[in-house]
Automatic annotation (TrEMBL):
GO BP terms, alphabetized: Mo-molybdopterin cofactor biosynthetic process
EC number(s) reported in the record: 4.1.99.22
Keywords associated with the record: 4Fe-4S, GTP-binding, Iron, Iron-sulfur, Lyase, Metal-binding, Molybdenum cofactor biosynthesis, Nucleotide-binding, S-adenosyl-L-methionine
Pfam families: Mob_synth_C (PF06463), Radical_SAM (PF04055)
Enzyme class: lyase
Protein name per UniProt: GTP 3',8-cyclase
Residue ranges annotated for the Radical SAM core domain, each copy included: 6-225
Known cofactor(s): [4Fe-4S] cluster
Cleaved signal peptide residues: none
Entry keyword Iron-sulfur: yes
Length: 324
C-alpha cells in the first residue's frame, strides 16, 4: 500500500536521522547554547532503525537517506549500512565529510554512491568560524577523493548574507573542472537558530551574482521530486542548484518522509506534529497504520505556514534535532 497524502502525492523517500550528535557546531543548525542530547534509551538502536526502515520499504519507500547530526559518528555505523543495504532501496548519505575516508571502501562494497557533503565556505578561516571547528583540509581532501573514486557528490551550502554570500561565484567556479553539483540552500528557520530573512539570500539574488561574473547560465531539466532548481555554466563539468524553501516552495510533488533519531515520524521538515513510531514498535504494535495516519495529516506546503512567524517555527525542533 503506497504512502499517499490527501493531495495524491506518493511518498517513496525516507530520511533517517541516525544520531543527534555532531562533530561540528554550525550556528544555523545548532543553537549557540547547545542542545540537550537525547538519552540513549530513547534513541533508536541500530537494529530498530533497520527494522523500522523495513516497514517503510513494505509501504513503498525505495530511497533512504541517512542524516544526523553527523551520521558517521554513530557507533557501529558500518553495521547499519551493511544491514540497510540488504533492503531493496537506493541508499544515500548526508555528511559533513570529516570521517568519509574511513568509509569509502565500505560504501563501494554496498553500492552507496550518492553523497551530499555540507560545506559552507571554501575559505579555511571562514569555515572554522561557521563550524566552530577546523577540519577544513580533511573535508576538502575527502571531497576530492570521493570524486576520484566515482561517487556522485553534491555540496550543500547554506547561504547567509554577510557570512558566505560573497563566495557564491567561487563555489560555481569550483564546478568548472569537477563533475559535482553545488546546492545553495536558502537560510531556513528552526528553533534556536536566530533566523531572520534579512540574513537570507534568494534564488534570484544567487543567479544575479553568477550571471554578473560568469555570464548567462543554462537551466537544466528538473528531475521529478527535486528540491532544487538546477543550472550550469556552459562549458563547466559540474552544475549548481538552488533550494529555495523560503522564497519559492517546491512542495507540489514532495515525496519525502522523515524519521528522527528518537523514532518520531515527521511528514515535513517544518511539521510541528510528530508520530512516535519507536514506542509503538517497542510495544509490539503495528506501525503501518501510524505511518498512514501521519501522512494523512500532511499539509500541502511547509506545514501550512505561508509566512515564517517565530511563534510557529519555534514550535519545531532544532535543525540538528530533526536531521539534515
Amino acid at each position: 500500500m503506497a504512502i499517499k497524502d490527501t493531495f495524491g502525492r506518493t511518498h517513496t523517500y525516507l530520511r533517517i536521522s541516525v544520531t543527534d550528535l555532531c562533530n561540528l557546531r554550525c550556528f544555523y543548525c545548532m543553537p549557540e547554547e547547545g542542545v540537550e542530547l537525547t538519552d540513549k534509551a530513547h534513541l533508536m538502536t541500530l537494529e530498530e532503525i533497520v527494522s523500522i526502515a523495513g516497514e517503510f520499504v513494505k509501504e513503498g519507500v525505495d530511497t533512504i537517506r541517512l542524516t544526523g547530526g553527523e551520521p558517521l559518528v554513530r557507533k557501529n555505523f558500518a553495521f547499519l549500512i551493511e544491514e540497510l543495504a540488504k533492503l531493496p532501496v537506493k541508499l544515500k548519505l548526508t555528511t559533513n565529510g570529516i570521517l568519509l575516508d574511513k568509509y569509502f571502501e565500505l560504501f563501494e562494497k554496498v553500492g552507496l554512491k550518492h553523497l551530499n557533503i555540507s560545506l559552507d565556505s571554501l575559505e579555511q578561516a571562514k569555515a572554522a568560524f561557521i563550524t566552530k571547528r577546523d577540519y577544513f583540509e580533511r573535508i576538502m581532501r575527502n571531497i576530492e577523493t570521493a570524486l576520484e573514486r566515482g561517487f556522485t557528490v553534491k555540496l550543500n551550502v547554506v547561504v547567509i548574507k554577510g557570512v558566505n554570500d560573497n563566495e557564491i561565484v567561487d563555489f560555481v567556479r569550483y564546478t568548472k573542472h569537477r563533475n559535482l553539483s553545488v546546492k545553495f540552500i536558502e537560510f531556513m528557520p528552526f528553533k534556536g537558530n536566530q533566523w531572520d530573512w534579512s540574513k537570507g539570500v534568494s534564488e534570484e539574488e544567487i543567479l544575479t551574482d553568477v550571471r554578473k561574473e560568469l555570464g548567462e547560465v543554462v537551466a537544466l531539466e528538473k528531475p521529478a521530486h527535486s528540491t532544487s532548481n538546477n543550472f550550469q555554466v556552459p562549458g563547466f563539468d559540474g552544475s549548481f542548484g538552488v533550494v529555495s524553501t523560503v522564497t519559492k516552495p517546491f512542495c507540489q510533488d514532495c515525496n519525502r518522509l522523515r524519521l528522527t533519531a528518537d523514532g518520531k515520524m515527521k511528514n515535513c521538515l517544518f511539521a510541528r506534529n510528530e508520530t512516535d513510531l519507536l514506542s509503538a514498535w517497542r510495544s509490539g504494535a503495528a506501525i503501518s497504520p501510524l505511518i498512514h495516519q501521519n501522512i494523512a495529516q500532511k499539509k500541502y506546503s511547509r506545514d501550512g505556514m505561508t509566512v515564517f512567524a517565530k511563534e510557529e517555527f519555534e514550535q519545531n525542533r532544532t535543525m540538528i534535532g530533526i536531521g539534515g
